[in-house]
Specification:
157 residues, 7 helices, 83% helix
Length: 157
């Protein structure tokens, strides 16, 4: 039962991160639409699709990790769980900085930290479950692109 509960909590947590981030993003769209954007900015519907895929892949990554490690109570397990939680918090915080506060520069710095957590998870998971690690690669690549995009937006505005 304990393992099933951790799976349910994980699904709820990933959904909550996605929901809170999109809530803040949607509230900041009026401001965002006033910005000068580079020509290579993806359309909003595409960004939404990409984030939906990333959240699903992240969820599968976490669930695979939990399934493989359901009986372990090691420090290594705790470190990975810590980075998953930190990653979710940073994901929401980026939306708060960028869309909620219009703080483009600070959101760029925060995205660098967010992507460092992505890279850390990729490396930690690789030792334990390569599939779980690979499922996190699109997140890392997308946040790298988004960081570059935000930097260009910062320069244009």
């Amino acid at each position: 039962m304990k393992n099933k509960l951790s799976y349910i909590i994980t699904v709820i947590a990933v959904f909550l991160v996605s929901f809170l981030g999109s809530l803040v993003t949607n509230r900041g769209m009026d401001w965002y639409e006033t910005l000068n954007l580079p020509s290579f900015t993806p359309p909003g519907f595409f960004i939404g699709i990409v984030w939906s895929i990333i959240f699903l892949l992240s969820l599968f990554s976490i669930l695979l990790f939990l399934h493989k490690n359901k009986a372990k109570k090691e420090l290594y397990f705790g470190i990975i769980i810590f980075f998953f939680i930190l990653n979710g918090i940073l994901n929401i915080f980026w939306s708060v900085l960028f869309f909620g506060g219009g703080l483009i520069f600070w959101s760029i710095l925060e995205m660098i930290v967010l992507n460092l957590t992505n890279l850390t998870l990729i490396l930690l998971l690789w030792k334990n479950n390569k599939v779980s690690s690979i499922l996190f690669w699109p997140y890392f690549l997308w946040v790298g692109f988004a960081t570059y995009l935000a930097y260009i937006i910062y320069l244009l505005n």
